[in-house]
Amino acid sequence: MMTSNQQFSYDAAGNPNYGQNQPPSYEVSQIGQTAPPQTYVTQTTVTTEKKPNGMRNAIPELPIALAIVLCIVNFLLPGIGTIIAGFSVLCCGNVGQSGGGRFGTFCINFWVGIAQLLLLGFFFLGWVWSIMWGVAFIAIASE
C-alpha cells in the first residue's frame, strides 16, 4: 500500500517518477486478493502477394466452358489441350496477362504442348505438367 508521505511525479513519457522513494508495493490482503496481472498482447500481420511468373503469363484467357473442356483434354491426352489452347488464342481467346501478341502466345502454347507430349515418357512429367496447365486454364478463366 502506498503511504501518504510518498511523493512522486510523472516524466515526459507518462511514467511515474518516484524520486528517491521506492515505487508503491502491493500487499496481499487478508481475503486473498492480489494486484491485477499485467498482460501485453502483440499482433503481427504478414501479407504476401503472388506475382505471376513468365510461363503463367503465357497461359491464354479462355472462355470458362472452353477452359474446362481443354483441362479435360489435357488430363486424357497430355499436351493436346495446350496445343488447342494455342490455336484458340487466334480466334476466341485473349493473350492472357503477358500483354504480348496473339501469335507469340500461340507459339508459346504450341511448343509447351509439344514439350508436354515429349516428356510424357519421362516419369509422366509431361502428364503432370499438362494437368497443371489445364487447371491454370480454369483458374485464369474464372478470374
Automatic annotation (TrEMBL):
Its main location: membrane. It is a multi-pass membrane protein. Keywords: Membrane, Transmembrane, Transmembrane helix. It comes from the Eukaryota. It is found in: Membrane. Pfam families: Spec3 (PF15795). The chain crosses the membrane at residues 64-90, 110-140. PANTHER family: PROTEIN STUM. This is Protein SPEC3. It comes from Clavelina lepadiformis (Light-bulb sea squirt).
